[in-house]
Amino acid sequence: MKKPSISFGGLDLLASAVLVLRADGYIAYANPAAENLLENSNKVLATHRLNELFLNAHELDLVFQQAVEHQFADKRQDLTLERMGREPLQVHMVVTALDNPDLPVLIELRENVQQLKLDREERLIDQSQANKELIRNLAHEIKNPLGGIRGAAQLLELELPERHVKELREYTQVIIKEADRLQTLVDRLLAPHRSPHIVGDVNIHEVCERVRSLIVAEFPSGLKIKRDYDLSVPEFRGDKEQLIQAVLNIAHNAAQVLSSRVKTGDAEIIFRTRIARQVTLAKVRYRLALDLHIIDNGPGIPPDIQDRIFYPLVSGRDGGSGLGLTLAQTFVQQHMGLIECESRPGCTDFRILIPLP
After folding, report:
1. Residue 350 and residue 310: Cα distance in Å, rounded?
2. Hey, CA dihedral for 247, 252, 253, 255, is it positive or negative?
3. Could you count the other beta carbons within 10 Å of the beta carbon of residue 352?
């Protein structure tokens, strides 16, 4: 079938995905945003009907037929478009009936960013809950035999023959010291679940200043810590020490990955506070929330672990324990909040959201 002659130049500049359909349902035109969203070129898309692109095509077929029959001028609805072997698309769809018998339908697809954000937050919360259960169970399973190993090593040391005690004591001390090291790790794993939640009035800028002083003391030169505070952020009820630890864990990680920039003197961490409005956390809507960003200009988080950085024992740094971010997320969630992260080379942004009164 000959392609109708019509200019689509103006649609090329739109940020939202636009598809123009022929009367037989084939795609006559897809703008660059649609090519990007559907991961196919305009040329490839032109060989398909719209209903061939998605598994749940019955809804699209129905709306397309209604548009062709001019049952509406335009129609809007939210859809989840299922795709074979790919992530489903959460979109807001606008269908417009055109006064052109050859090209009767125009469809605009906008990714539903809010839904994607809610889904991501839900995954983070579920992941954190699973982490807590895993940590508790693993720590308790390790703790009991660990005590037995240490005790046995101490008894063995007492039974060593006198003539060999000096040589053999070195080995029993290795067992005892390694058992103590593992015990310290177990205690850190269990710390958030043991420590009482001490609630008081918290000024987030006092928290940031305390963390800043600790980081500056450890990295006195080569690292600049900037403050970008919104002084209108109100105090809220919370555990100040837990929040200091959460912010410190994130900022300290940032300072350590900035080591090469520290040497050249252009390492930078930014503490930025704002008030976010109408925020949804764990499916609960809050009128106001603290919006704290900890931003560094380091190399970024390796892509292969970006989705797992809050898992216990996952670290992108040699020698890291992989517990700092797990504990930070736990402490923030105990304040009904959440930590999110976006990272690319040159900019890693940890965002802490906590409901405000």
Report:
1. 12
2. positive
3. 25
Decide: 253 and 325 in contact? Cβ < 8 Å. Answer: yes
Asked if 243 and 335 touch (Cβ cutoff 8 Å), the reply is: yes
User: For helices 240-257 and 204-218, what crossing angle results, to 10°?
Assistant: 40
User: CB-based contacts of 232: which residues, under 8 Å, 6+ apart?
Assistant: 275
Whether the model pTM is above 0.90: no
Q: Please say whether the beta carbons of 93 and 107 come within 8 A.
A: yes
* Cα dist from 280 to 14, 114, 230, 329, whole Å: 29, 10, 21, 17
Burial class for 353, CB neighbours closer than 10 Å (0-12, 13-18, 19+):
buried
Q: Are 288 and 276 in contact (CB under 8 A)?
A: yes
Q: In what order do the strands lie in the sheet with 86-97?
A: 27-30, 17-21, 105-111, 86-97, 74-83
Q: Which residue has the tokens 């299922």?
A: 82
State both tokens at 58.
């019955």
Burial profile 201-238: b = 16 or more Cβ within 10 angstroms, e = fewer = ebebbebbebbbebbeeebeeebbbeeeeeeebeebeb
Low-confidence stretches of the chain (pLDDT beneath 50): 1-5
Closest CA to 323 of 234, 200, 181, 191: 191
Nearest alpha carbon to residue 292 among 356, 348, 351, 225: 351
Residue 156: what pLDDT?
85
Q: What is the dihedral of CA 54, 55, 58, 59, to 10 degrees?
A: -60
**Token pair listed for 296:** 């560094």
Name the residue among 98, 84, 109, 97 with its Cα closest to residue 19. Answer: 109
Q: Is 253 exposed, middle or buried (0-12, 13-18, 19+ CB in 10 A)?
A: buried
- CA–chain centroid gap for 318, Å, is 22
Q: In whole angstroms, what is the distance from residue 330 CA to residue 136 CA? A: 13
- The whole-angstrom separation of Cα 282 and Cα 214 is 32
Instruction: Please list the residues that pair with 268 across neighbouring strands.
Output: 224
